[in-house]
Each structure stands twice: as C-alpha cells, then as structure tokens.
C-alpha cells in the first residue's frame, strides 16, 4: 500500500491521530500501535493511535514513507504520505 492518510483535529494536535481506514495494511497499523474503532453513527471503521501526528510521521518515515502534502480542512489537519514501491 503506497499511500497513507493521517489526520487529527486542530484542537487535538497532541493526539489522538487517525492513521487509517478499515482497508489499511494490518501490518502497518500494528507497527503504529493503532486500534480499529467504529464511531457511533458511522458505517465504516478507522484506525486511531493516542500519539500526536508528529510521532506518527516519525514512525512512518522510519519505514520509508514521505509526506507528499499537508492541508487543513475545516478543523482537521491531513497529511498524505507515499512510499516508493521496491
């Protein structure tokens, strides 16, 4: 899986961080220590970690991911990361 999106709410920049959806690579989610959750009212699951985005970005860099872009959407910060295929 060459792309990953992570996000957090602006007021929660110290965590938690959303690190994947229900189709994310389980090995990467395990490496990040992510828990799969379904928020009441949603018909999909997400992976979250309690760590702030900076720590998640550091961990993903160690396994070869690089930030492609970052943006703010309303009250949400979103990072898109990519890993070159080997």
TrEMBL record:
Which locations, inside or outside the cell, does it occupy? Cytoplasm, Cytosol; Nucleus membrane
Q: Which PANTHER family match?
A: GTP CYCLOHYDROLASE 1 FEEDBACK REGULATORY PROTEIN (PTHR16852:SF2)
Matches recorded under SUPFAM superfamilies: GTP cyclohydrolase I feedback regulatory protein, GFRP
Q: Which GO terms describe its biological process?
A: negative regulation of biosynthetic process
Q: Does the keyword Membrane apply?
A: yes
Q: Which GO terms describe its molecular function?
A: GTP cyclohydrolase binding
Recorded hits in Pfam families, A to Z, give: GFRP
A single Gene Ontology CC annotation of this entry is: nuclear membrane
What does the UniProt keyword field contain? Answer: Cytoplasm, Membrane, Nucleus
What protein name applies here? GTP cyclohydrolase 1 feedback regulatory protein
Question: What family does this belong to?
Answer: Belongs to the GFRP family.
Taxonomic source organism: Scleropages formosus (Asian bonytongue)
